[in-house]
Structures are given as structure tokens and as C-alpha cells.
Amino acid sequence: MMMRFTYILIALLIGTSSCKDFLDTKPTDFVTPSYETVNDFELALAGVYDILGNRTFYGDVWPYWLNVSTDIEYTNTGSANATVYIYGPAEANVTDFWKALYTGVYRANLILDVVDGTDLDEDPKNRIKGQALFLRAYYYFMLVSNYGDIPLYLSAKPSINEMDVPRTPMKEVYNLVVTDMLEAEQLVDEVEGGNTEKTVNFGGRVSRSAVQGVLARVYLKMAGYPLMDQSKYADALKWALAVKNSGLHSLNPDYTDVFIKYARDEYDIRESIWEVEFYGNTQGAMQEYTYYIGARGGIRTQDAELGRSGGLINGSGKLFDLYELDPNSTTVPLKDSYDLRRDWNLAPYTYVGTPGVKTPNNDRWRRNMGKWRREYEVVSPKDISTSPQNFPILRYADVLLMAAEAENELNGPVNAYPYINEVRRRAYGLLLPQPPNPNVNADLMGLSKDEFRQAVKDERAREFCFEASRRTDLIRWGNFVGDMKAYITWALANGGVEGHVLGSRNVSDRNVLLPIPTYDMSLNKALTQNPGY
């Protein structure tokens, strides 16, 4: 049984209203909850973490409703809804996402308002404060990168004189995110094997490596669209290398085992640095499950023993074609790939009937998301529509590819090859005790700066497909709408049909940001709407 934040569900005691909800009526006073002991603060901190696993964040809305349609993945429902960029300011998923993030901010502020004034010993005080600072910063990062300018709330205590809070320019929000994360980096614990007595040995808790890796991500975003502050590439490289040079992390030699571990309730903090914890099967009290795996995605089957899945999420033909073919392969109609990630991420079979019979799927446009496979789950009985499998927020492979990207932008590819090639060698099975193709050359070399930049983009697609990063990557690279429109032409010329490009058809300039929710604009008269909504 994996180590859990055993207290996390006690967050239910804190409530689920957003930080804006408590401003619906004008307060005359506000009493901060009484936090005195370490246990009090740990229970409060559980409520801050709890937002990550909420259905309105990683449990469903973020990976599925807001990120499922790109040039490498799509949902096969054919529905005209938020999954294909049809949404406005009243869209429930957009509103719920906003509320969840602000609820996380509010819960973190409850801790930060009082923790410095307590008599706690320095070590637990630092750990608690560091995690609260980082989580608040992460929620603000998700808000500013998706909604643009946003209101900032730096205290849980509302002011009766400031009911209408204007949007803070995004550059100022990013500066706050960085400031909070830099302070948190000095306060939280290292992962197991570090130089401190108190260490983190499971990915459900924020560690120093998690803070450093997410700092690299934040700086890469600041270097890209819309801020375009290219000086931040140096900061991104600095923090990615801080994780690498710590010596505390390494790639799991077997790419498939990374995801089997999520199903089997096992941690591997060397590879999976920070992850969302899901658990339970809707039976009993201890529950935090995801709809993204099961009801939405997975290998299609009605067999409850295997783990039912609607198989609604597929990879595109473009993603399939990004994986290098083995020229010596004799399999038909689709050749094998040197890249072992392909047939794991894009399941080459479905299950037919009950009990499910593994049946080949040779349509490269209709392969199910196979990254998380319910057949490996250990929780029993398996729920018909939800899954307890954890979801990665930061993997070590991401750290390596961020280092490669930043190094190339700063100095060209000469010193960036080792980072990307380490990821590629694992992908080609060369880190396994017995590589299936030991003589294959996985390394890139001899590329121009532009060619290397494209190689990183393609490598991120191969490595992180279905992990809710492609849309945000395309946006920060600065040509989201253009890339999505170009994909239509490519897809229809390469075996795709209209159902495969439905999301791309609906994308326009407004979709670079989400709309500010109507509900909050009705409460906060200082809010303005994003362009196009």
C-alpha cells in the first residue's frame, strides 16, 4: 500500500466554496480559523492539496474538458461542447475550474495569514509554510496562464472596502508566482536521499525538486507567449538543472512501468516527482477518484474485471506518425516502431465482448489512449466509470526536455543533446537490461537551432501525450491557432476525417485564453472580459 496523505479527505471539513463565494455578502468581520498545533496546520494543508484531485481540476475538467482536443489527441464523442472549444463565459467547466483554483488560493491564505505568528518549531513551520506558498503560487500560475490578468487575493481576510477587485496585469501575477515559489524552495523538504533529515518519499507531497521543476516550467512560460521575456530561458535552465544536478532523480528504464506504477498504487519519486493522488472505487469514505481514466479514457471495454472504459480519447494519426518506424518490420498493415512509447500510448488493441477479448486495432487514427491501463489496477472491485490511478504533474522526463529547450534557445543545441537524448534512449528501450533493438541509434545530432526546437516539440508530443500539456505548449510556443488550423489540412490529406479535426475547426484567437466566468463578473464589478467573449 502506497504512503498517502492519510489526512487529505479531512479537507472536506473546510468546505468547498470558492474564495469569491464568501464575498457574496459584505462582511463586518472575519474570524480566521484557529490553527495552533502542527496537526491543525496539517489538516488545513490537506485542504489545500485536496483541490488538485477535485473533479473540477485534475479529476476531469483540466485533462478532459479543457485539453482533450489538440493536433495529437481528440475525443471521439462528436459532441459540440467545451471539449472542442465551444464555450463562453457561462460554461460550467470554465467557471468550476476558476472556482476550484481560487478555493485553493483561499485555503492556502488561511494558513499563510497565521503560520508565522505561531509558536511552532521552526522545521514544521517551514515545511507547512513552504507547501502553502508553493500551492498558492501553483494555483495562481494555472489561473494566470489560462485566464490572463486576474484578481489577486493575498489574504483570507476580506476587506469591506474592497468588494470589487480589478484584474492584476499578468506580469505582476507571474512575479508573485515566482516570488512565492522561490521562498517555498528554501522551506520544503528534499526528496528521499537528500542532505536533510526530513525527506519526501512519495510524489503526492511537494518536495524541493517539485518546486524547482515547476519553477523551470513557469520561467519557460514567461519566456514564451504572451510575455515573450526571453531572459527567462536562463532561469528555466537554472532550475531544470537544479533538479538534474541534485542526483536525486533518474528515468525509470521502462517507460511503461511509469504508468503501471500509477495503476498499482506504487510511488517512484525518482521519475514521478509530483503527482495528483487518486484512490478508492466510490465505495466507502476514503475517495478521490478521476473520471479522466475510465469514463473518459482508456482502452475500450465493458469488462468490469479488466476495468470498464468508454475509450473516448484517441490519439491522432499525426501523433502515430511522430514515432519512428522500424524499417525492417514485417508486420502489416502497420509496421512496428523503434519507439516503444507508441504502442503503449496508442493502444494497438481494444477488448471485445464480456469477458473482454483482446482484439487488434490497426486504424492509426482510432487508437485509444493506452497510457493508463485499468487492467493493472489493484483496487477491487473496479468502479464502472472512475479510476484510482494517480496523474503526473511533473515527471523527470519533463525536467530533461525543459533543460534541452532552454539550453537550445540560449546557446543552440550543442550542449542540449544529452538532455533530449536521455529521454529518447529510454523511449527506444536502450535503458532496459535487454534492449529489444540494441543497435538502434536513438540519439539526435547535427541539427540547427530551429531543427532542434522542432525536435523538442515533437519529443514532448511523443512523451507527454494525454498528460494535458499539448495545448499549453502550443500556446506558449506562440502559434496555437495557426498550428491547429494547419493540422486540419494535414489531417484531411493523411487519412483523417472531419471528426478528427472538430476541435481545430472551432479554434480562434479567443481560445488562447479562457473567458472570465459570468458568475464572478456579476459579483465583482471591477472585472473585465477577455477578448472575443
UniProtKB/TrEMBL annotation:
It holds the Pfam family SusD-like_3. Keywords: Cell outer membrane, Membrane, Signal. SUPFAM superfamilies: TPR-like (SSF48452). It is found in: Cell outer membrane. The keyword Transmembrane helix does not apply. PROSITE patterns: PROKAR_LIPOPROTEIN. Belongs to the SusD family. GO terms for cellular component: cell outer membrane. CDD domains: SusD. It comes from Sphingobacterium gobiense. Residues 22-220 form the SusD-like N-terminal domain. This is RagB/SusD family nutrient uptake outer membrane protein. It comes from the Bacteria. Residues 271-533 form the RagB/SusD domain.
